[in-house]
Amino acid sequence: MADKPIQGEKRMFMTGNEVCAYAALAAGVDIMYGYPITPQNEIMHYWTRLAPKHNRSFLQTEDEISAGFTTCGGVLSGKRAFTATAGPGNTLMQEPMSMAEMMRIPAVFIIQQRGGPSTATVIYSQQEVTMTCYGANGEGLRVVYSTANHQELYDYTIKAFNTAWKYRFPTFVLGDGYQAKMRESLTMYDPELRGIKMVDTYPLVGLPGKAGADRDPAHLRNTYNTEEELYEVVKELVATYEKFAPEIVEHTTMECDDAEVVILCHGIVSRAAVEAIRELRADGVKAGMFRPITLRPFPAEPLRNVVQKAKKLLIVESAEGQFARLALPSLYGLTTPMETIFKPGQGITSDEIVKKIKAMA
Amino acid sequence: MTTATVLEPKMPKCWRQETKPHKFCPGCGHGDILKALGTAIDELGIQDRVVFGCDIGCSLLSWDFFNCDAIQTHHGRTTPVMTGIKRARPELICIAYMGDGGGYAIGAQHLVNAASRNEKLTVILANNAQYGMTGGQMAPTTLPGMKTETSPYGRDVDATGNPTLGPEMVAAITPASAYVARGTMANIPQLTRMMKKALQNQIDGNGFSFVEALSACPTNWRMNAAKTWEFVEKEMTKYFKVGELKVPAAKQEG
Asked: Do you know which Pfam families this protein is assigned to (chain A) (predicted)?
């Protein structure tokens, strides 16, 4: 085995896509399957340069459907495997993602959101929220981490593999085109040195011994013959997901204790919110921020508690209300007045948030 | 005095007895094709290394057919799932089993690209010239003039093209190390030999191996048993020539 790709701790300055490739290496990923689509390409580019030096593999498939299904195959065979995609590729990949939901295949998907619908732009958006959380013909039994910076891309890419294999639900790192392409500094580390033990992987097919003699064969399917049978299966899946959700769910807040106006946002938009809060607080406006880190499962109770105390709520996202639709069921019955900044496919600056909140006062 | 001889049906050893009789319609080709595959697995002694993948459509009924690890996946996606396994665990013998829809329509891009990449897989495709499980619609392999639910006046090749010649296509795009053949449920000993060669090619690490097997649909063809056999043996073979199309360094089966 080659040396560990990340020795000790290193301060680095690099693009988000490069960070994802390094994080996957540090997480002990065995194989990546992928198909090119902007803005996630450099994850593959760096992986294909680094992987052979560390005895890891790569396959460039014929499309995203295949990339998703080969990833499922790699995971079923007991390897730590992942893929990455964006936009129309995410749309195509919903099919293997639904199989991963049904069979509880611990596959990891990195999504670097671009504009939509359809081909749209190759740059940036937060418009893959609904699809990543609830795409395909399923119940959204997935774990989705929405990252805000390169450090989180590194931390949560590593964490995604452990969440996937510990709980056996497909797990997503939801970044975006800005995070994918821009450079910023972060600390890379060997997970082991920080006490992070990578969860062991294990095969679901290709098991040792002769099936029928030494053991039962692994017979996996996602087709069910009757409505009653499917009902039992899905109810069990949902119950398992809900049992684990409290262990998985994550959020962060800023200045919420006395906040009169709460900014609700996720991902990179939260960085504009952080700056806006600093400016607003300097001007005597009591603003705070609530940011879900897991969009699935959603931190419903903590959000409700924060919004309940506030006088106003502002939902900010680079999409036309996809994130708001995720959040609003948590607020059912509350009467806190709400306003929004919805900017599909565009970035959001702190100035816009400050201006909006001052106008709301 | 004579003693009565009880003849038990001879099943391949790698079949899972608990799931027999199988779930295919009486007279369906799948049972015979899977028997040929099972015999080949037995004779090669690879049962403990086989991972069997099947598609959506009638082939999915084989998900618990063998005493081998098996996975039933999505329509047309068996090839990439098995590719993913094989790439991650090259020591396993990966078999992708599908129908003509899974291989030549919805999953055609996967078949073409797996063949082009010379994936070390064995793909077995049952060609029964129509879609069985969904109720007998036209398939890429439906014969000219053949009536199906979506070609009720007979397949018009001007409007819908000619039957897909799968093995011919795969043979054209694979390197010399691939194995490509078309067998038939009407000749099980030959089909078994083809299956063995196809698996041996994977065991040897040579490259892609592909066997199409002409098959029958006793339900949607709306024929009696005699006509069904006549259709498999005489009508289908007019378009789909039985034989080996690509054999790496071995004697060709006629």
From this structure: PFOR_II, POR_N
Amino acid making up residue B29: G
Q: Are A115 and A121 in contact, with CB atoms under 8 Å apart?
A: yes
Best of A33, A35, A62, A79 to disrupt the B interface by mutation (most B CBs within 10 Å)? A62
Exposure string of A330-349, with b = 16+ CB inside 10 Å and e = fewer, is bbeeeeeebebbbbbbbbbe
Q: How do residues A322-354 score in pLDDT, each as one tens digit?
A: 999 999 999 999 999 999 999 999 999 999 999
Minimum distance, in Å, between the CA of residue B83 and any CA atom of chain A: 6
pLDDT in tens, A26-68: 999 999 999 999 999 999 999 999 999 999 999 999 999 999 9
ipTM of the complex: 0.94
Question: What residues of chain B score a pLDDT lower than 70?
Answer: 1-2, 250-254
For chain A, which residues lie within 8 Å of any Cβ of chain B, measuring from their own Cβ?
30-31, 33, 57, 59, 61-63, 65-66, 69-79, 81, 95-96, 99, 203, 205-207, 209-213, 217-223
- Beta bridge partners, A338, equal A313
CA distances from B86 to A95, A226, B25 (A): 21, 32, 32
Q: What is the pTM of this model?
A: 0.96
- The model's pLDDT over A149-198, given as tens digits with 9 standing for 90+, comes to 999 999 999 999 999 999 999 999 999 999 999 999 999 999 999 999 99
**Angstrom distance (rounded) from CA B108 to CA B105:** 5
Q: Which has the closest alpha carbon to B127: B223, B59, B209?
A: B59
Spell out where A183-328 has E strands.
183-189, 219-220, 251-254, 261-264, 287-292, 294-296, 312-317
Mutation target to probe the B interface, by most B beta carbons within 10 A, among A58, A59, A69, A220 is A69
Architecture of the CATH domain A251-360:
3-Layer(aba) Sandwich (3.40)
For an interface test with A, which of B58, B73, B110 has the most A Cβ atoms less than 10 Å from its Cβ?
B73
Which of A59, A76, A213 minimises the CB distance to B71?
A76
Residue type, A349: T
The C-alpha atoms of residue A213 and residue A227 are separated, in whole angstroms, by: 33
Question: Residue B77: which of A65, A212, A218 has the nearest Cβ?
Answer: A65
Q: Where do the DSSP E strands lie in chain B?
A: 50-54, 69-72, 93-99, 122-127, 130-131, 137-138, 179-184, 209-214, 243-246
Which domains does chain B carry? 22-246 (3.40.50.970)
**Nearest alpha-carbon partner for A109 in A78, A135, A133, A85:** A85
**What class, spelled out in words, does domain A9-194 have in CATH?**
alpha beta
Which residue ranges does chain A devote to CATH 3.40.50.970? 9-194
Under a CB-based contact definition with an 8 Å cutoff, are residues A95 and B77 in contact? yes
